[in-house]
């Protein structure tokens, strides 16, 4: 294969794009393992001290647990809801399906801070009517994060359903399967890659969300990104880089594990 | 147990009619083809038999039992879909065993029967593959095995060969026919390919715009077509509009006077149907040659007689034959046995294909 100038230029462009995307991530990881308190270059003095420091600070450990909890519960609630919605939209083709679909994808289009503020005000009003706490409770936070999981789920599961051969369901019925058996044995397996990918994306969306959560967290119930932002307000040192590195590794690990079950590149 | 009866079966979608009162009676072990252009209602008819489309009127009776209201899973039909519709997440073995599983056959019997069915379609040893690891022809045979393993009362085939390449199509055609005859399956096949229908089926049903035009054997349809549509759809045909002028003389719309079968009585507008292979051509004469198409064993001559186009298909003449030197613009004469030129009723909007 000859290397035409066009190919070289294209290759350089791709390399530049990847560098641009990955450099900040690599930078964070590098900073987290060197001693200098003020971020400087070249780094020197290898240490894992920042990780120890991060673990020692209660707010990060607790934030991590809260974030994982919220992400897991929001995923468990949001993915079934989104899957049901996608199924109804694709198969039932109700009137106004297009509008409904846009509505379900809405949370992706509204800036997180705006949605967060709106939710905060709504929660305050609801607290007044219901006479119970909603802001700064786990339930309130989970409810908000479910909103993050639904658009991704609807999109991914819809894609799976649209890619499936409807005749396979008819074939199953023709072979003697009752409607529910058809659903369980043929339709659900067809949706499975979409559902698995939806779980992954929902979890990540929730786990790393900052803007929506900002006003909804409370004392002693802070998510990891909010805890990091709070820390940043008072000091800048590589402890944050250490926390961020852990976060990055978790997300990367989730991606890799998921990719073993469904090819992410093919599903998304 | 395996007879199939369609009684005045109809399907309307709002104001439009997809299938109009189709009556059909299949004997046990008979293979019948529904043949017609796309949109003629043949697939809708098949899907009403399988239970996927609720009829607007009429009945479907399988093995003496009225199943018009029964859901697809309660009908005991085995269907092969155009897209094969294999379950992509199941192995070949699981695909074939699915129908037995639904009938609560125990695991050991299930596996044995699935293996036997795969052997029957010459796919033994591929049980553990996934459908996507097979070629189109192999997937097709898995679909056959899956439909046949449950011994359905009625075997339904929806354009089963349309996704195969031409060479494979011929092979699978023979294979399906052989299986069908060996197992004595009552079979309804839908196709738009007349060759497929002619070679596989005991009887053919020609459909057009929701209506049955003619039911009969391949020979019936080819030699005794009921109307210009059937004549034009099954095989090639010169279809000439005009009227019978006197006994045995047909005047085409453009004025040519042609000999035709003598048994028809003079009447109004009619269509003369003349198979091109029954027309003989010789050099010199009143007709003008327009085009000559060499097709190897046969040669096609397009000629015009007093403004009436006529096609003749003859065995390609030898190198010394004067016919060989004919070229467009030459005068030729065309002749045929008058008894082979059939007079068909002209119905408005019925133009032969």
TrEMBL record, chain B:
Keywords: ATP-binding, Nucleotide-binding, Transport. The lineage of its organism: Bacteria, Pseudomonadati, Pseudomonadota, Alphaproteobacteria, Acetobacterales. Residues 4-234 form the ABC transporter domain. GO terms for molecular function: ATP binding. The keyword NAD does not apply. It holds the Pfam family ABC_tran. SMART domains: AAA. This is ABC transporter ATP-binding protein.
């Amino acid at each position: 294969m000859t290397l035409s100038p066009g190919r070289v230029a294209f290759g350089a462009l791709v390399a530049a794009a990847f560098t641009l995307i990955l450099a900040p991530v690599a930078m964070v990881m590098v900073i987290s393992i060197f001693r200098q308190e003020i971020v400087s270059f070249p780094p020197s003095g290898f240490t894992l001290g920042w990780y120890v420091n991060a673990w020692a600070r209660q707010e990060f450990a607790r934030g991590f647990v809260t974030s994982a909890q919220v992400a897991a519960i929001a995923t468990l609630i949001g993915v079934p809801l989104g899957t049901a919605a996608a199924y109804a939209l694709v198969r039932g083709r109700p009137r106004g399906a297009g509008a409904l679909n846009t509505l379900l994808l809405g949370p992706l289009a509204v800036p997180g801070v705006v949605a967060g503020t709106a939710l905060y005000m709504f929660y305050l009003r609801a607290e007044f009517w219901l006479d119970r706490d909603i802001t700064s409770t786990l339930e309130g936070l989970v409810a908000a994060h479910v909103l993050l999981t639904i658009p991704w789920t609807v999109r991914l599961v819809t894609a799976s359903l649209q890619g499936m051969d409807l005749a396979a369901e008819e074939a199953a019925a023709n072979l003697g399967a009752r409607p529910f058996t058809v659903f369980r044995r043929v339709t659900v397996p067809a949706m499975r890659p979409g559902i698995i990918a939806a779980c992954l994306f929902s979890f990540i969306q929730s786990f790393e969300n900052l803007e929506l959560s900002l006003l909804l967290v409370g004392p002693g119930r802070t998510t990891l990104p909010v805890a990091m932002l709070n820390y940043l307000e008072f000091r800048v040192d590589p402890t944050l880089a250490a926390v961020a590195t852990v976060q990055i590794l978790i997300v990367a690990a989730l991606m890799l594990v998921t990719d073993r079950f469904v090819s992410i590149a093919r599903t998304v | 147990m395996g007879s199939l009866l369609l009684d005045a079966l109809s399907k309307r979608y709002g104001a439009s009619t997809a299938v109009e009162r189709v009556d059909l009676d299949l004997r046990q072990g008979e293979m019948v083809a529904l043949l017609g252009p796309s949109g003629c209602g043949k697939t809708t008819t098949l899907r009403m038999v399988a239970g996927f489309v609720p009829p607007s009127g009429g009945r479907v009776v399988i093995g003496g039992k009225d199943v018009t209201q029964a859901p697809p899973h309660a009908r005991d039909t085995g269907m092969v879909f155009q897209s094969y519709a294999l379950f992509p997440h199941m192995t070949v073995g699981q695909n074939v065993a699915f129908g037995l599983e639904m009938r609560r056959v125990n695991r050991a019997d299930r596996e044995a029967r699935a293996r036997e069915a795969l052997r029957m379609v010459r796919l033994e040893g591929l049980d553990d593959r996934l459908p996507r690891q097979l070629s189109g022809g192999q997937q097709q045979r898995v679909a056959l095995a899956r439909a046949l393993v449950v011994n359905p009362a009625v075997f339904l085939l929806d354009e089963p060969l349309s996704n195969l390449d031409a060479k494979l199509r011929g092979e699978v055609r023979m294979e399906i026919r052989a299986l069908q005859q060996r197992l004595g399956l009552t079979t309804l096949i839908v196709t738009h390919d007349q060759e497929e229908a002619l070679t596989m089926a005991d009887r053919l049903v020609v459909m057009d715009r929701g209506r049955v035009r003619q039911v009969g054997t391949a020979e019936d349809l080819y030699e005794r077509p009921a109307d210009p549509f059937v004549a034009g759809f099954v095989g090639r045909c010169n279809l000439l509009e005009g009227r019978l002028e006197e006994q045995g003389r047909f005047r085409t719309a453009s004025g040519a006077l042609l000999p035709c079968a003598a048994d028809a009585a003079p009447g109004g507008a009619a269509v003369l149907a003349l198979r091109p292979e029954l027309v003989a051509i010789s050099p010199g004469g009143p007709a003008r040659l327009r085009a000559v198409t060499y097709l190897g064993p046969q040669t096609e001559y397009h000629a015009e007689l007093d403004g009436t186009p006529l096609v003749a298909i003859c065995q390609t003449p030898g190198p010394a034959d004067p016919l060989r030197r004919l070229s467009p613009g030459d005068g030729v004469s065309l002749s045929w046995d008058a008894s082979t030129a059939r007079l068909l009723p002209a119905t408005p909007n019925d133009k032969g294909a």
